[in-house]
Amino acid sequence: RLGVLHVGQRIEEQADFEKIYKNAWADNANACAKQYAGTGALKTDYTRQRTQWGLIMDGWNSLIRYYKNNFSDGFRQDAIDLFLGNYSVDEIEPASPLHVKKDWKFLALPIIMVVAFSMCIICLLMAGDTWTETLAYVLFWGSASFGTFAIILYNGKDFVDAPKLVQKEKMD
Questions:
Q1: Where would I find the beta strands (DSSP E) of the chain?
Q2: What is the pLDDT of residues 39-90, one digit of tens each?
Q3: Is residue 81 within 8 Å of 87, Cβ to Cβ?
Q4: Considering the entire predicted model, what is its pTM?
Q5: Are 38 and 71 in contact, with CB atoms under 8 Å apart?
Q6: Cα atoms in the 13 Å half-sphere on the side-chain side of 139
């Protein structure tokens, strides 16, 4: 009806158009996903042509989304709440609800866990003179990494970047 195709032509016969359309569709999905989730869209290579590399990138993007959603996205939700009017600023309150002091464990424990886990892997890869020496090092660094991981899990709410603004009460 728009005159894009001649009489008798079918859209399925237009391979070049299909490729351009699918690429535009996938590029749009990536742009929207980057704004919303902080990473490219998942399965865009499926829209184009599914590959093993695309499968690996989907896993990588999922890991990045998990991290961002749990540890660094609270401020985005606060900004959305302010923008949409779900939170109203109280001019009388002197302290900002956005400023929350972090405890020492917020920075120290993840660093200790990463160092301990790295040392455990290094001890496995670079064996000592005897197997008992290697086992002792691996047990020590493994228990240190497991112990700090357990402490982090126990204090999990301190590590999650949750939104700090509360929604205003609904007026009924």
A1: none
A2: 888 888 777 777 888 888 889 989 988 888 777 777 777 777 777 877 777 6
A3: yes
A4: 0.54
A5: no
A6: 6
Q: Judge whether 32 and 6 are in contact, CB under 8 Å.
A: no
Residues 128-165: tens digit of each pLDDT: 788 888 889 899 999 999 999 898 888 777 777 666 67
| Token digits of residue 9 | 């032509």
Distance CA 128, CA 149 (A): 26
Residues 72 and 161: beta-carbon distance below 8 Å = yes
Instruction: Tell me the H-state helices in 88-165.
Output: 105-125, 131-154, 156-159
Give me 37's structure tokens: 């989730």
Residue 54's alpha-carbon distances to 25, 63, 121, in angstroms, are 16, 14, 29
